[in-house]
Description:
The chain is mostly helical. The chain has one domain: Winged helix-like DNA-binding domain superfamily/Winged helix DNA-binding domain (Arc Repressor Mutant, subunit A, Orthogonal Bundle). Helix content is 65%, strand content 10%. The protein is built from seven helices and two strands, in the order H-H-H-H-E-E-H-H-H. It has helices at residues 10-32, 40-49, 56-63, 67-80, 101-125, 127-141, 150-155, and strands spanning 83-88, 91-99. It has a two-stranded antiparallel ribbon with strand order 1-2. Helix 1 (10-32) packs across helix 5 (101-125) and helix 3 crosses helix 4 (67-80). The two termini are 32 Å apart. The model has no long low-confidence stretch (mean pLDDT 90).
Amino acid sequence: MSERAGPGFELPLLLFAGFRSLIDETHRRLAEQGHPDMRPAYGFAMQAVGLDGASASEVGRRLGISKQAAGKTLDRLESMGYVSRQPDPSDARAKRVVLTELGLDSLRRAGAIFDRLQADWARAIGADRLRALEDDLRTVTAGQAYRLDAQAWFGG
């Protein structure tokens, strides 16, 4: 173990603090840009809906939550105008959730904010160090980097 390394329990806390700082600042800026009711859970849900849309069951599976919990989140997103339910073209009995223009706008804005925050981190620690950090995280997470089920994991 390196002399500079802290205790093992500190690593997940530092990673989580970095995650929280990015997410919290993104939502603060989203609020300034016309999305004051957007919450992290809603962002995960909209990512689970995706550009092609999804059923409530698919969203639940992607988030690692029940269909009912996914439905409750989707109901809230629909009431705020971020998603809409439409007939599923492959099953007349089913509904498909799709992102509205407002939902797409929030995701585009969040993407641009993340790019600016990444640039801020590069200025703070250096572009080479940030690139190395991202490469190292890709190595140690090996295929887990883009899981959407954090909400369910934190919920127990």
